[in-house]
Design brief:
Layout (H helix, E strand, L loop, with lengths): L10 H6 L6 E5 L2 E9 L2 E5 L10 H11 L3 E7 L11 E13 L4 H7 L2 H17 L4 E6 L5 H17 L8 H14 E8 L2 E11 L2 E9 L8 H15 L4 E6 L11 H5 L2 E11 L2 H39 L2
Parallel strand pairs: 3-4, 9-10
Antiparallel strand pairs: 1-2, 2-3, 4-11, 5-10, 5-11, 6-7, 7-8, 8-9
Helix pairs in contact: 4-7
Length: 321
């Protein structure tokens, strides 16, 4: 996969989300990477980029130039070539599920799982037979209608509540994201009788698209229109010559898991890691010990909670006997 800057490295995204940056790191043949240097630590914003963009010799050079004791590459795809480096720690922070798009929708559909492909065809047939006047519209950048944008967000929040959890997109998040959307945005919406009933909100940079939000009206749950609007989003992306769709972060199951739409529509997954390089062995071993201790403490806490839950359920079961 060809590496470009992702939306997370753009100045408008950094400013909208109050991500601190006070310097830039040049990369041969690529745009410079935003970074933040403070208190002897140089943090380079590498979200969804390859660690290999900066070789070990470059890391050592940066330590000298910026007079720092450590360099942190945040949320990147780690490079196994540097495994032999003795002063390098990797911490997995998340994962990115994405789809490598072919040149046609037919080829993309053929790459999906058999169940997913059959389900989508069935959902579309039933839905468009029941609602023949459906309109699908795609808007870009400054042409993204604010009312349509906010309606997709409202539907997404409503959908989350109906499933028992609170959406991470509150009013302040909507405002921040809209600042980015006005320059890099893509909004694909589905309308019935001129009313928005579903849609996706994404951003495009280079030949990559990042999907941020998907939402739809719960009234149409029986028709699975979430799958339909996502299919139409992919179809439009292929028309727009997009090579990669990032379905944002997350996903812990295998790529055959039918319970996760990101896994169903994606065909690749890479883990995202914070990679830290240390100038001195003392700093490295101190951080390594702290990381091991923190991991053990977390696992112990999880085991204790698990045992307490088993005791609680056992006691509750006996009290009902």
């Amino acid at each position: 996969m060809e590496t470009f800057l992702t939306i997370h490295q753009t100045e408008v995204h950094l400013k909208a989300y109050n991500v601190p940056f006070n310097c830039s790191i040049p990369v041969v043949g690529k745009p410079a990477l935003p970074a933040f240097c403070k208190n002897g630590i140089l943090t380079i914003h590498m979200v969804m980029l390859d660690e290999s963009l900066l070789g070990y010799s470059k890391i050592l050079e940066l330590m000298e130039v910026y007079k720092v004791r450590r360099v942190v590459l945040n949320s990147c795809y780690s490079d196994n070539k540097n495994d032999r480096n003795k002063r390098r720690l990797i911490k997995q922070v998340n994962s990115n599920i994405f789809a490598l798009l072919p040149e046609s929708m037919e080829t993309y559909m053929s790459q999906l799982g058999n169940h997913t492909r059959r389900d989508i065809h069935r959902y579309e047939r039933r839905f468009f037979q029941a609602y023949s006047s459906i309109e699908i519209v795609t808007q870009y950048n400054s042409a993204v209608d604010l009312d349509d944008y906010m309606e997709v967000i409202r539907l997404s929040k409503e959908r989350c509540l109906s499933k028992g959890f609170i959406s991470g997109v509150d009013d302040s998040e909507a405002v921040r994201l809209y600042e980015v959307i006005k320059l890099y945005g893509v909004l694909t919406i589905m309308k019935n009788e001129n009313k928005v009933i579903g849609g996706t909100i994404g951003t495009i940079l280079g030949n990559q698209m990042t999907l941020h939000i998907i939402g739809h009206d719960n009234f149409f749950n029986d028709f699975h229109i979430g799958y339909i609007i996502l299919t139409k989003t992919v179809e439009q992306a292929i028309k727009d010559k997009i090579h990669v769709i990032n379905f944002t972060w997350g996903g812990t199951g295998s790529l055959n898991d039918r319970t996760n739409w990101k896994i169903q529509f994606g065909n690749e997954r890479k883990f995202l890691n914070d990679v830290t390089y240390y100038k001195y062995f003392t700093d490295y071993w101190t951080s390594k010990f702290e990381d091991v201790f923190r991991t053990l403490r977390q696992r112990l806490s999880e085991e204790i909670i698990k045992v307490l839950r088993e005791i609680y359920h056992f006691a509750k079961k006996n009290s009902n006997c």
